[in-house]
UniProtKB/TrEMBL annotation:
Gene that specifies this protein: rrp41
Entry keyword Nuclease: yes
Species of origin: Thermocladium modestius
Domain of life assignment: Archaea
Name used for this protein in its record: Exosome complex component Rrp41
Family: Belongs to the RNase PH family. Rrp41 subfamily.
Amino acid sequence: MGGKSPVPLLVDGKRVDGRLPEDHRPVTMRVGVLPNASGSALVGYGNTVVLAAVYGPREAMPRHIALPDTGVLRVRYHMAPFSTDERKSPAPTRREIEISKVVRQALEPVIFLEQFPKSSIDVFLEVLQADGSTRVTSITAASLALADSGIPMRDLVVGVSIGKIGDTVVVDLNKLEDNYGDGDMPIAVVYRRSWITLMQADGSWTVDEVKKAIGLAFRAAEPIYKMERDTLKGRYSEQAIVS
Ligand code: ADP
């Protein structure tokens, strides 16, 4: 965020890729893409593509991480070296460690972890292409992969990023908007329960803008939530929506 964008981010109310402020990029999803995983999903938000793989519940290893009366959720978010314009070192960065933690916290409230004492559920998120909003795309992918694995869940989670270009609140930041916009607010929504399980913010926001951001996040989450459910019903069939 910050710095001067090489191109204007908003011209006559339209964004660099032609979207209106409230438009989400096209979403694609597919489940069951990795036969050896307990559950898996491939999710695209525009050119951002994330693969999620779930293993478990299985005996928690190393043993000292096991808890006697509940299961442990572990999440590893990683950007593939080829996911960005310039090769990214495969070693985990501080950013990846932080994102792993917030994605885990966005998912924990919906999983019945108490049904799996001494066990771990391991979620691996591999960003295959990064074009902004990778953490929220990861949340949607992880939620789908967990549901695909059959782990009991209270509901599905949808990630949506909200941003600011000048004073305009926009939905689903691409990389240019993320890097040069004036605000970034990733939000995870548990749609049917009206819960927010993740909300972070960069930039400065008025209270009215925050309220607008939450409203836009729920509006954008609705079709994505429906698509998650439809994708899970029609396993192996690819779904795509354009908002
Ligand atoms: P998010 O991907 O959730 O929006 P950030 O705001 O940290 O998370 O990153 C914004 C975007 O910047 C990413 O989606 C990605 O396109 C790009 N990016 C992040 N880290 C790197 C990196 N190490 N090299 C190149 N681009 C990166």
